[in-house]
Amino acid sequence: MKKSSVYDCTIIDLDRHHSNRKGNLTVVENNKTIPFDVKRTYYLYDVPGGESRGGHAHKELSQLIMAVSGGFTVTLDDGIVKRTFTLNRPYQGLYIVPGIWRILDDFSSGAVCLVLASHGYDEADYIRDYNTFIEYKK
Ligand code: TYD
């Protein structure tokens, strides 16, 4: 996915099941809601205001990022175009294809960022240096 673009990444509206006076329930299913199998789940929380997370790209990993509580901003960059998304609804996910640099910031207090990932953790899949990323995308 060296040639992937920020336009391959989209907001997915997730299923919302509303129960009168009892709140909402949202579902994500492998290969139905998202075009990959979830192998790993992690979440970011207690991120101090003003801090940014992310700041890397993945060579093979697909992800769905959700603000299950609070909100934050995700900036995607394919080396040519940048797109910024505000995530602050628990029934929306941002689908990110491999080969995209991403930065998360502007966390609200109490924000929880849930990430569903297509692969297990593998440091070799990360590109952590921006110049290396730009070279990789050429
Ligand atoms: P990292 O992906 O660098 O987080 P961020 O880009 O949001 O700052 O991960 C932070 C640390 O957590 C790093 O030492 C690797 C470790 N980590 C795991 O051990 N397993 C995982 O699944 C993830 C995502 C991170």
From TrEMBL:
Residues 8-137 form the Sugar 3,4-ketoisomerase QdtA cupin domain. Pfam families: FdtA. Gene3D superfamilies: Jelly Rolls. This is Sugar 3,4-ketoisomerase QdtA cupin domain-containing protein. InterPro entries: QdtA_cupin_dom, RmlC-like_jellyroll, RmlC_Cupin_sf. Transmembrane segments: none annotated. SUPFAM superfamilies: RmlC-like cupins.
